[in-house]
Specification:
This protein is an alpha+beta fold. It is 40% helix and 21% strand.
């Protein structure tokens, strides 16, 4: 019997999503999702339990399988996930400590060690990126310094996708996208560089074997079949990073195309040819799931997380109303913000609830409301939250263009992009048309396409996208609103610059008095 379904799974920062793709029709026929927790045990720390990833993955898969007779019809599976995660496991694949995820900022001292030993220029040349706690290596060195018994027992450092792929097929692997967050990875050669690894102080054998995203890494084991409900022997592909799989899932496959993915955090991913050298390191570079393309990527930490923080702390009334009415609580927030004029009556919000990623890379940054007046309302604060996130995007947008990145089109995906109001603010701020695809969660769809290539159903990942991805709407910017936003953006940026010293001293006080 010819099997024509594939399964794609994406491990996000707080949620796992899975979908079943019918490769004959190009339609998603089943979807599942499961939240998993994030822990902040100390200021600047951000950790997750590896087994929580796996439990959320198995739950999402079983939700899909309950929606149809798919288990025996699935030909292949691929997993993507959040990047910049340091997860040590022993030779049996057991986690040795919680995963230190991308937003964990405790390894500033280790970043200085890397700069002093191998030098930032060599990291730039080899890996294409800057030295910052966001990456795998500084966190691994923190483990070596503070938990030497864990480092010594580490057989491999895995990503969340790599860990769950191991649970699927029993092999230690890493796709080239995840590898791009390790300094030992030479991105223009698609290979580990042992000289760089040893200079940093992480033996090269602690990194797994590399695979391109569409390559076969193994098959579903009997144990994994029992836990997931999938058929033993089902092909497992290497998968990708969450952002690169999502870019594939919305059809961003050529140089000059850009992708803005919004979730707990967000990413602006601009496609450049891998051979193109871009000497700008405030924005990251890592491999797309498509060989020959590199994502010039600006990660931002607190996108949907900013509005979620507001909901959790101040949104009890909306939460109860949403439950009674069967509505999305975030829609109730944005409905209030619609009645506030552009630029929120001068209220500015810095979306840095713990740290700032691209372009500032300040692990001591903190969230700020600036311009509070007696007339400031909850609705004003909600709109300012959305606009602050859009200003963060604009700061990266400008840097990318100045560095020579070409941006022909900008395609949206992710939870907050379901709000047309939020999308219109984004378009007005960056002054570009935004394309909204008629697609759900893009990353698991991209993974399902990769799984279909691994299973031999598709000859390549690009050709089938014409039947899968349709653009349902293009949102054009309002030039009048844009002029207003440009003026306030300059002040927004100045507010951050003026507070950098205060943020640093503030974090020192928090650490001194152990305030969480």
């Amino acid at each position: 019997m010819a099997r024509h379904f594939t399964l794609g799974i994406d491990i996000g920062t707080t949620n796992v999503k899975a979908c079943v793709l019918d490769t004959q029709t190009g339609r998603v026929v089943a979807f599942g999702s499961q939240e998993h927790p994030l822990f902040h045990p100390k200021p600047g720390w951000a950790e997750q339990e590896a087994d929580n990833y796996w439990q959320a993955v198995t739950s999402s898969i079983r939700q899909c399988l309950e929606q149809g007779n798919f288990a025996d019809q699935i030909a292949g599976v691929a997993i993507s996930g959040l990047v910049g995660v340091t997860l040590p496991v022993n030779d049996k694949g057991r986690p040795l400590r919680p995963a230190m995820i991308w937003m964990d900022s405790r390894s500033e001292e280790e970043c200085s060690d890397i700069r002093n030993t191998i030098g930032e220029k060599e990291i730039n040349r080899n890996n294409g990126n800057r030295v910052a706690p966001w990456f795998i290596d500084p966190k691994a060195l923190w483990i070596a310094k503070h938990e030497p018994h864990v480092f010594a027992a580490t057989h491999k450092f895995l990503s969340p996708a790599g860990y769950c792929t191991y649970r699927m097929c029993g092999n230690f692997t890493m796709n080239t996208g995840d590898a791009g967050l390790a300094y030992a990875y030479e991105y223009q050669k698609e290979a580990w560089n042992p000289v760089v690894a040893n200079a940093i102080g992480i033996p090269i054998e602690k990194f797994p074997r590399l695979y391109r995203s569409h390559e076969v890494v193994g098959e579903i084991t009997s144990k994994a079949a029992e836990e997931t409900g999938l058929r033993p022997g089902t092909v497992v592909a290497a998968g990708g990073t969450d952002i690169s799989s999502a870019a594939l899932g919305v059809g961003v496959t050529k140089a000059g195309e850009a992708f803005y993915s919004m979730g707990t955090g967000s990413n602006l991913g601009i496609m450049i040819p891998t051979e193109q050298t871009v000497d700008e390191y405030r924005i990251l570079k890592w491999p797309h799931v498509l060989p020959g393309l590199t994502m010039f990527d600006a990660p931002m930490a607190f996108t949907g997380a900013s509005l979620k923080w507001f909901r959790d702390q101040f949104g009890d009334a909306e939460f109860r109303l949403a439950e009674r009415m069967g509505q999305n609580v975030f829609d109730l927030f944005t409905e209030q913000a619609k009645h506030v004029p552009a630029c929120s009556n001068g209220l500015l919000y810095l979306p840095y609830l713990g740290n700032s990623l691209a372009p500032n890379w300040n692990s001591r940054a903190t969230g700020v409301f600036f311009g509070v007046q007696p007339t400031t309302t909850r609705a004003t604060m909600i709109r300012a939250l959305i606009e602050g996130v859009a200003f963060d995007l604009l700061s990266n947008f400008r840097i990318a263009e100045a560095a020579g990145a070409k941006i022909d089109t900008l395609v949206l995906n992710g939870g907050p992009t379901k709000s047309r109001f939020w999308n219109q603010i984004t378009a007005n701020v960056v002054n570009r048309p935004l394309k909204v695809p008629d697609i759900g969660e893009a990353a698991p769809i991209g993974d399902a396409v990769l799984a279909a290539v691994a299973a031999g159903i598709y000859s390549d990942p690009v050709t089938p996208l014409a039947d899968i991805v349709k653009i349902k709407e293009t949102i054009d910017p309002d030039p009048v609103a844009n002029r207003r936003y440009v003026d306030f953006f300059e002040e927004w940026r100045a507010v951050y610059q003026s507070l950098v010293g205060s943020m640093d001293r503030h974090r020192s006080l928090l650490e001194k008095y152990s305030v969480s």
